[in-house]
Amino acid sequence: MANKSARQAAILEIIGAQVIGSQEELRHRLARRGVAVTQATLSRDLRELGLVRVPTADGARYLRQEAISDEAKPSLEALLPQLFSSVAGVSELVVLQTVASGAQPISEAIDAEAWPEVLGTVAGENTILIVCRSTAARKAVVARLTRLARPG
What we know:
Elements: H1 4-17, H2 23-32, H3 39-49, E1 51-56, E2 59-64, H4 76-83, E3 84-90, E4 93-98, H5 103-113, E5 118-123, E6 127-132, H6 135-149
Antiparallel strand pairs: 1-2, 3-4, 4-6, 5-6
Helix pairs in contact: 4-5
C-alpha cells in the first residue's frame, strides 16, 4: 500500500495525463500501478486534492477545481442532470443529494446563478444544504432544481 503522499501524487499524475470519468476507473488505473485503494479513501483523496468531476464535450472527467476557469465552469443546467440524485426540503432548507464528488461543482453552480430565493449553500461530498429566504422560496427552488435535473 502506497503512503498517502505517493498515492495522491499518482492520482494527480493519472488525472493530468488521461481523461478519467469515474472513481472506479481511477481505482483500476491506480491498481495497475500497484496502488490498492478503497472507494472511501479515494473519495477523501479527491476531495483533499481539490479534484471535481465535471462534464465535458467528451463526457465527464476529473479536473483540479482551480484549473477550471469561470468561463469554462459548467452551468447548472449541464451539471445537474449528470450529478443529481435527489432533492427534498423542509421549512427554508433544501437538501440536494448528488453522486459521489458531485456536491462541490453543483453548489458552485447554484451560487453562480445568484437566485434571489437562495441565501447560500454548504456542500460536502455528495450533499448540499441550500438555505432559502422563506418556505415559498424553498418550494420554488426545489421545483426549479427538479426541472433542471430532469430536462425534457
